[in-house]
Structures
1.
Amino acid sequence: MNGEPMRRREFITLLGCTATWPLAAGAQQRPAMPVVGYLLTGTPEGTRDFVAGFRRGMGETGFVEGRNVAVEYRWSNNVPGRVTESAADLVQRRVAVISASSQDQATRLVGQNQDLSQAQRNQLRGLSLKSATRTVSEGDLVEFRGFLIGLPTRPGASGAESVNCRLSGASNSDFHIPMSLNADDSEFEGIVVEMIPQDRNPGWTTKKLKRAAREGRPVIVRGQLFYDNKHLVNDDPDEPLHGQPKRHSLWEIHPVTALLVCMTANKKCTQLSQFRKLEQIPVVFTHSLHV
């Protein structure tokens, strides 16, 4: 197959969760071995799974890196604007195809108030996990165990967002709740879980949420997996990752269908029975609910 023109249609169709842009043929002769450009917004260490999946996708189309196709990798290392510069460089190098993951596409759209197309959203299905036998898709019901962060000291960090016919007030707005694996993580290390106003349980109050966050209580959140590329860009030059999404992960649990709080005195819960549903917890709760 070496020396044959790249079968672009097959290559584009079977790559999986990537988007590709075949470049128009130019006057100059391309090398016998086609060259593919691959754009990634993160670091080489942080995007190993993306690269591995990309290579598997190429293999399924009959292309093996170094044998019948060459790959030019470009990492932005989370530097704003570097992806665009890298794309321009790949065009100048006359690669046959430029490819980028859906995560990279969404990151470039952050702060521009643009949504992903339906075709791009379709690529967020059947994504590979670290487990070799399981996949996950946008819209799946998931569970996340961790801690509520950012709420006690920065009550404005999760500002209200009217989603109910533009009516104002907390009863018509989402609750944006930063959450992470560790109680001392920053919002840049977490995700957002959102409680929508429609049919929201009246026992889900910001006062209870802030209390659980302030006391560093583990929580369990259940809900639907959603990919939101419309997160606002961090515009504070003194904060880390300036110019990146305020919450660095673009995946959310939205809407939340259940939130449970660890209620033991030592704030260590090893059994599900040691958690209580948020709506079942009194506004002024004590540690006596569980030993």
2.
Amino acid sequence: MVVFQDLPTGYLVLEDVADDRTCATWQTLVDARLKALGTEVLYLVSDRAKALIQLAEKGLECLSMPDFFHLMHDLVKSYALAIGRRLQQATSSSRQPSKPYRATERARQRLRPANRPRRQSRRGEPR
């Protein structure tokens, strides 16, 4: 399958399937569509199939660039679960105060008399 898409707009210029996936086959399909639209190709992003590289370099005479989607997908997939697990642990543990904090708060409450108001800072904010 070959898909020619205008990246800025998302417009599908050509989408076709062929059993014979050679440069000549793709060249014939692409040339007809580009001629009908009166446009040209500036660069071709592909999965690095030899026929598509040849189409870009010799047929369309444009820059051939690799598609990084599959590479990035595999890369992210390899560490996403580990990062997600650590993030979940950090989030769940940050919702509960630590033991030293809870102990300090209990001690403060015991030491402060119930009828005594909290002291004010110089700015008028409670301490």
3.
Amino acid sequence: MRAEGKIWQGIVLAGVVALGLAVPCSGFADALPPVAQYQAADFDVTGGSHQYLRKTDNDPRFTSGGSLLLMFGTYGTGSPPQTASITTDTPAYADKLIVPVRGEDCPDPAKTTFGRWPHFVVSIDGTEVISTFATSRRWKKTSANIDLPPGRHTFAITYDNDFWQEGICDRNLRVNYFALYDLRTVPGRDAHPQTTWAQVGSKPLSDERAAFLVTHVPENRPENVAANDYQPSDDELRAFLNSRDPNGIGPVQYNPLARYVTGRPGLSNPSTDDLIQWAAHKWGIPEDVVRAQLATETRWRQSTLGDQATVSPDWYGQYPLQARIAGTSDVYQSMGIAQIKWLPDNSLHIGTEPLRWKSVAFNLDFYGATVRYYYDGLCKWCTTGYSAGQDWNSIGAWFNPQPWLNFGQLDYILKVKSNLANRPWESPGF
């Protein structure tokens, strides 16, 4: 964005910060009136070169009421990042924050600073509640659980990695609104763990609806934090869906459920258990079974490496550095919390590299789609004994589905059942 030779960098706030329901598709936010809503045109702007533009004539279909605040001019000024804030009285209690954002990215981060996508921080009364990247050129809702009593509060958003260089890129962040919601009034909002398998053939829940059902649990795997926060960009998901195996088969042709794999729960600062719950709700798999299976695979560690194998020099170079064993031709073929195994010719788990190790949410989303592939009866090549609705055998198929009911599959099921009975994730030494 530029005007009259000046850099128009920054946040486009068309509305407010929303303390509310992160469910653009499931209808909760539409059905539930907000506690309060604050137009960005009323926000004060500080930092950068103190340049900003207020507008009220934008298309109301794409901005909150058509109002918009454009902030720009931070990069190269030596000034602090720009912050838009408002101090106001909130009339009632709120327990959810939603911030819809759009990003304009720098496609080649090597030529810029601070990554590819715009990064922003949302705070309430000086306490950070969201810190993440806007990884899509389309509006996406980010959210945070909060505990906000009525009264006077300061809401702020800071865009902290502005960049512009002619011929390189112009990175910008657009934020639609801040709104406050009290979800205690939503039916079924109380604790609702996923304890059963969703019916055979059930469509997975939307990312937003599954996120709404998550009950936050503190992190017990702090080394997972970066991968927990990582949500795939549009380009990364496009690369996944456009990948092909040696026969020209793509992920969706192999497993129709792959079309729903996004790795985008929309949760802010999720714990590992939060993401496990999200995947369990989305795919209709009992969450304790998922916890037990992941304890069997990796003890919930995203950095776990498995399935060492000797490969050709060409294949060796296609594995990420952390999966290569220096001084050898060996690599670890399985990576991530659910140990997604990948081969460079895409003959196994098509297109999952590199998101399988970059993003816990993607790893779990792909895992859930695969388990449901077997459970829903979609496997056309599975052998005698296979049919829809086999819960434990579908869990075992994640380890080895061929031939159906092979020894490895059955032995793996026993290990998962043992972890389900012993619940090691509840142990202080887990």
